[in-house]
Write a structure and sequence with these properties.
This protein is an alpha/beta fold and 246 residues long. The chain has seven helices and 15 strands. The strands form four sheets. Strands 1, 2, 3, 4, 5 and 8 form a six-stranded mixed β-sheet that branches. The chain has a five-stranded mixed β-sheet with strand order 11-10-9-14-15, covered by helices on one side. The chain binds beta-D-glucopyranose.
């Protein structure tokens, strides 16, 4: 099946048509920069631009950075509060002209890593974490997803822990890779107390530079970088569309 996957991030919307059998993009991904926070109208215009770029009228899977219950957007940490509690599938459907299904962005990225990337064939408990503007989390057991897990929102000194350990914090605070990884290790220690995964996959843009930080990571579980890089969100949004259709 071919689905247009759109990955909604804190700094850009990215999308491409995806072959859900192979996990391959069928064209170079199209990226539209957004403001931070991103007003709803601007985000929907970005989604429209991606659909138009590919002259797309078919199914659209959107990976969105919040809890998604049904088609409803939940609390939004990093995009802007004006998105909250809206019917996201209807909004994106009007914007793109396609039939839209909406999923949490980390759940979508996790699905892609489990099917085509670092989690392929893993039957135990696998935790996918995406380190970007925020921190996303997706937990799998025997290949099945437990959706809408929000480990990035674990309270840490009165704030969500993603404001302490995300990749954006490293840049904003100009932390060395070592300093930042110490923060990630604290986060992993909390997470391991809560769910004891056998494998942790670390994704997000930083997964492309794992030679800089992986050596400093300390955890009980085996930790590996995501393999699909930035495409995981796009491929996963398309896969999730197909899974939800079953
Ligand atoms: C959101 C999550 C999302 C993560 C990564 C967090 O702020 O609450 O739903 O998965 O950012 O984008």
């Amino acid at each position: 099946m071919i689905v247009l996957g759109i990955d909604v991030g804190g700094s850009a919307f990215k999308g491409a048509p995806v072959n859900t059998k192979t996990g391959r993009l069928l064209g170079e991904r199209h990226r539209v920069e957004i403001d931070s926070p991103c007003p709803t109208a601007q985000g929907l215009a970005a989604a429209r631009a991606i659909a138009r770029h590919f002259d797309w009228r078919g199914p659209v899977g959107v990976g969105f950075p919040s809890v998604i219950l049904g088609n409803q957007i939940g609390v939004v940490g990093n995009l802007g509060r004006n998105w909250e509690h809206q019917n996201g599938a209807a909004l994106f459907g009007r914007a793109t002209g396609g039939k839209v299904k909406l999923f949490n962005d980390a759940d979508a990225a996790g699905l892609a890593e489990m099917k085509f990337g670092a989690g392929k064939g893993q039957q135990g408990s696998v935790l996918m974490l995406t380190l970007g503007t925020g921190i996303g989390s997706a937990l799998f057991y025997r290949g099945r997803l437990m959706p809408n897990l929000e480990f990035g929102h674990i309270p840490w000194h009165g704030h969500p822990i993603e404001r302490f350990a995300s990749a954006a914090v490293r840049k904003r605070r100009d932390l060395s890779w070592f300093e930042w990884t110490k923060r990630v290790n604290l986060f992993l220690a909390v997470v391991e107390r809560l769910c004891s995964p056998e494998l942790i996959i670390l994704g997000g843009g930083v997964s492309k530079k794992s030679e800089k930080w992986l050596k400093y990571i300390k955890a009980r579980a085996k930790v590996v970088p995501a393999r699909m890089g930035n495409d995981a969100g796009i491929v996963g949004a398309a896969l999730a569309w197909e899974e939800a259709g079953r």
